[in-house]
Design a protein that fits this description.
alpha+beta; 179 residues; nine-stranded antiparallel β-sheet
Amino acid sequence: MSVKKWCIAVIAILLVTNGLTLGLLMMRNSSQDKLSGSGKAWEAFMLNGKSQHWQVNHFMIIRTASSTYRGKGSLTYLGAPGNIQDSTYFSYSFYEQPANETPQAVLSHTESSINGSVSLLDNTKEIASIQGAPYFWELEETKEDLGYSYMEMSWKDNQGNMHTEKIPMSVTEEYESME
């Protein structure tokens, strides 16, 4: 067998094995692109909540088998704006509670200032967002489980007094893939 025929045979074998490997990977990945238990490609939830001084609107959770996105939405102060306009600190954390487990902080944001305001009213108009691989417990989490979610908001008022409120959240809208 000549060198030329030998090279053609090796290239043909490599192309066939690469094609088979790619085909097998595509088949395996298509079954892993579904959320476990439901068979859906994706699902999305909008959550809202309200406490004595704060209201959360349109907080989103979007999940696929490989990624979870959380955030956006807004925080609105329900008290007199003049009470916090010169605030030097605020922090919020969003918690999800897996079934019968300790609540898990899955999104947090903090701002503080030494010689000036943190513009609390402006900086809460849009909640931060985060995206990443899902935690092990999230793929089994249901709409009912999300009903135990809450946001914790801490802030200093104009007098420097620290306040903390728990804002219970509820799922107000749910969307999912049509599969």
